[in-house]
Amino acid sequence: MIRVDAIWLSTAPLDMRAGTDTALARVVQVFGAARPHHAYCFANQRATRMKVLVHDGVGIWLAARRLNQGRFAWPKDGGSQLVLTREQLDALVLGLPWQRIGEAGVIRVL
Asked: Buried b / exposed e across 61-73, counting CB within 10 Å, b at 16+?
């Protein structure tokens, strides 16, 4: 398995025709740099497809996922970046509402 220490999500869409070099250039544009053992997630405009770029310290891995029905639960903010936990990424890849997993889904008594 590839070691991933941090998972980043971009709310800016990515053209799914993008290959490794184009996706890497987008990571540098959005996040400032591609750090070793970090994963960077992008979706297309309709949030029906996503790509994950991982820098493993030696090279670059690019994975793609497509939903046959529905959409990924992708934030609509036009230019921000979010940090995800591994559990949130697992839910996101399945098309589940990842925002409700972890500390973001905790309900507190007011």
From this structure: ebeebeeeeeebb
- pLDDT, tens only, 7-63: 999 998 999 999 999 999 999 999 999 999 999 999 999 999 999 999 999 999 999
Phi and psi angles of residue 27, each rounded to the nearest 5 degrees, phi first: -60, -45
Residue 97 has pLDDT above 70, yes or no: yes
Q: What single string gives the DSSP state of each residue in the chain?
A: ----SEEEEESS---TT--HHHHHHHHHHHHSS--TTEEEEEE-TTSSEEEEEEE-SSSEEEEEEE-SSS-------SS-EEEE-HHHHHHHHHT--GGGSGGGG-----
Q: CB neighbours (10 Å) of residue 43?
A: 24
A 10 A CB-CB count for 55 gives: 20
